[in-house]
Each structure stands twice: as C-alpha cells, then as structure tokens.
Amino acid sequence: MSGLAAGIRLAQFGRNVLILERHNAPGGLNSFYALAGRKFDVGLHAVTNYVPQGVRTGPLVKICRQLRIGRDELDLCPQHGSRVAFPGEDLRFNNDFALLESEVARVFPRSIDAFRTLVSRIREYDDTHLDESRAPSARTILETALPDRRLREMLLCPLMYYGSARPGDMDFDQFVTLFKAVFLEGFARPFEGVRRIIRVLLQRYREAGGERRMKCGVRSLRVAGGRVSELELDDGRLITADHVISSIGRLETLRLCADRPSAAEDVEAGPLSFAESIAVLDVPPASLGCSETIVFFNDSPSFAYGSPEHDLIDTRSGVICVPNNYAYGDDQDLDEGFFRVTALASYAGWTGLPEERYQAEKRRCYARMQDSAVRFLPGVACEELQAHTRTTDMFTPRTIERFTGHISGAVYGAPDKVRDGRTHLDNLYLCGTDQGFLGIVGAMLSGISMANLHIIRKEG
Q1: Per residue in 257-280, pLDDT tens?
Q2: Which CATH number covers residue 210?
Q3: Is residue 261 a part of any domain in this protein?
C-alpha cells in the first residue's frame, strides 16, 4: 500500500515511475488470494482511521485528497461494534468514541478522570512528525497516566496486536497513532475487501501514467558515490533511477545494498509474527452468536505480547475478526460466513519443521486457536462452529516470509523505526512499516509523505 501510494503521488506530479513487485499479486502484507474458488483477504481485518462522509480532517481524508480518490470509491462500510475481553471485564467500542468512554466509566469508575486527561493529551499529540528522536515507552507513560493496571493492559492489547513491533511494549508515538486510528476514529471495510482498495489504487496509478512490473523483484542495489547507481533485477537486467523508494523493510533493503553498510548489522530484525486461522461457514456468524466485528481477548489480568518461547503459538490472547459484521447495506451481504482468529506465533518454531510435520501442526494449532477464541464468545460452542464450517485455511510466519520476503515473518518490521525514511544512501528512502506509520491508511500516508518530502518538495 505504501509503495502504491508513493507511486501515485509521484506519477501525478509528472515523474516517470516504475513499481517493481516480486509477487504475482499487489498489496504486500495487505493482499488477497483465491483457494478452491473462494477469495480470501490477507492481513486486512479492518481499515482503521474511519470517519464518516463529510468529515474534513484526519488521515483518511488526507490520503483521499492527496491521491485524488473519492471516498465513495473505497466503499467503506463501518463496523457494527467491537470489544476488548479480559477475565470478568469487557470494554465495548465502536466508531463513536463516546461508547468506549462510557465503558471505561462503567468498568473503571475511579480511573475515568485520568482516562479523559490521557485522551486530551492524545488528541493534542503530533504523531505524524518525522523527528528521529526516540519516542518514550508507552508503558512508562501509561503507568503514570493511568493508575489502574487492568485498564492499561486492556488498552494496550488491541493496539499492540494492530501495530507494535516491540515485544511487551510500544513507542508512545505508535500508541497515539493507533489509539486515534482504532478508538477515536474506528473500523470499516469495503464490501469486496482489500481488492477494492488495491483496484482503486492501481486505477489511479495507471491514470497518472505509472508503470508496473509484476513477478519482477530486485536482486541487489548497486552503489557508487553514496547513491544507488543501478538496480539489478532477479532476471539479471539492470535499470537506473534518480530515486529509489523501498517498501520491503529496513533490514531487507539494507541487505540488498552492494556496499554492505554497517547499519545492516546493527538493525534488529522484527521479532514478532502471527498465525491466523480462517473458517468459512455455511451460515452467517451472527446466527451462531458471533455478532461483533472484532474481539481482542486475553485470558489473564496481564497481557503478554511476544514471540512464544516454548510453543508454536500463544493461545492466551488473540484477535477474532468476523468480516460479515460490517454495515454493508440492506441489499449486501457476504455469500458465506468468515471466522478469523489471530495469535502470536514463533517464527523459529514454524520455520524448522519438515513439510509433513508442518501440515500436521497447522491442523493442530488451528483447532487450538478456535478453542481459545470461543472462550470469549458467550453462547458460541466450538462444536457448532465446526459443524457449520465448509472449509478452512491457515497461515503461519513461514507463509508470511515466503510471500512477502519479510525476514522472520515480521508483520510489523523492525522495532526501531526510521521516521524520515532516510538511509545511508542519498537517493534511497524507506516507506511503509519501517518508516513508522501503521495500518492500511498509515501505509498509504507513509508513501505519500516520503514522496513529498524527498522528491516532490526537494525538486519542486
């Protein structure tokens, strides 16, 4: 998404732009695939930062304006409602922040004033800055701002799952970004899923005159005079460019550089990856009691966020996503039911398995993830869910690495972000996850920001 957005912005300003994509489908970490005639989204649970038509501020409005996309083209349908579920305590929320505020007042009455003070601070905080100074720890700030530990954990759980590359914590910049995106703005989804967004972006890119090559990866970046001099493609061809913007990740990009920069040895690979199970149902999930859009769950008072040390997956917490539960309109409904469960997963554990064992573990972990999830869905029985399941699929950290090239299957990249997108080479820049903006809207904003900062404004 970040690369597509950067390409559109540059092409609209008259630059000759070429997008190179190693895979046979666009979208990167937010893409799609077909299996046995069914269409599946990859990555997309929700488009965050949703605001209704008519609102003139916010990241979604900004990207639509800068990419010249009409809001109606994205066909964004708001969520029904979501929940954070901990033992004995739930916080419901939707796209009206007043609901979450009332829930905090109900569950944590002694903390509501402190919560409102924190929210005021978040509203005023500039999380889009490109200053390279290290942001403080979100946990450190929250420990001072919110006296109730349970409330802190319940707020951190969904935000870490949707964007933190740092085990056990996240930078306060990213906490603010995600708090605004998830709680102050909200969730939406196109009826067609991620395909709709990609199709709109590709159409705008073609209209602007951009060129795109699929199944055409970059093998190496040749360097001369402190700049990328040539790009060597997978098939051995060489091309030149005045500027190169990379959306593949910081460490992944540095490892392509022929000068082998010392920075490549210092960058920590992203340590966090996930597994996700997908059940396709023959009934709407709501008929089985799954009426919420997204449920973030955790089975203990504290939230442990990290790669499992002694297991392939961590079923203590997770995310349940039901794509059917968006307000698509009176005459629209998905043809089948979808029930998705996401859990933290061990890249090291999954990657070393021989193929037969790998497939067996996928089946075993699929069942464990389903069992774990239904604990937080009152009235939903695992047996009934299984009885209405037509087919299943599952991806693991191994899948993520194979199809995206992200080292260790790291969905959110390296823990340390490069806010201004600069590298050791004068004409090589980063966009996307390792630049620091998050989610689909954040990714597009990243691409726009890097194109504006390093090329459009610099060259006039």
Answers
A1: 999 777 677 788 889 999 999 999
A2: 3.50.50.60
A3: yes
Number of domains in the chain: 3
Domain of 362 in residue numbering reads as 273-404
State pLDDT tens for residues 89-138: 999 999 999 999 999 999 999 999 999 999 999 999 988 877 766 678 99
Query: What is the 3-state secondary structure of the chain?
Result: CHHHHHHHHHHHCCCCCEEEECCCCCCCCCEEEEECCEEEEECCCCECCCCCCCCCCCHHHHHHHHHCCCHHHHCEEEECCEEEEECCEEEEECCCHHHHHHHHHHHCHHHHHHHHHHHHHHHHCCCCCCCCCCCCEHHHHHHHHCCCHHHHHHHHHHHHHCCCCCCCCCEHHHHHHHHHHHHHHCCEEECCCHHHHHHHHHHHHHHCCCEEEECCCEEEEEEECCEEEEEEECCCCEECCCCEEECCCHHHHHCCECCCCCHHHHCCCCCCEEEEEEEEECCCHHHHCCCCCEEEEECCCCCCCCCCCCCCEEEEEEEEECCCCECCCCCCCCCCEEEEEEEEECHHHHHCCCHHHHHHHHHHHHHHHHHHHHCCCCCCCHHHHHHCEEEEEEECHHHHHHHHCCHHHCCCCCCCCCCCCECCCCCEEECCHHHCCCHHHHHHHHHHHHHHHHHHHHHC
Mark whether 213 and 329 lie in a shared domain: no
The model's pTM:
0.95
Shared domain check, 290 and 432: no
Residue 411 lies in a domain: no
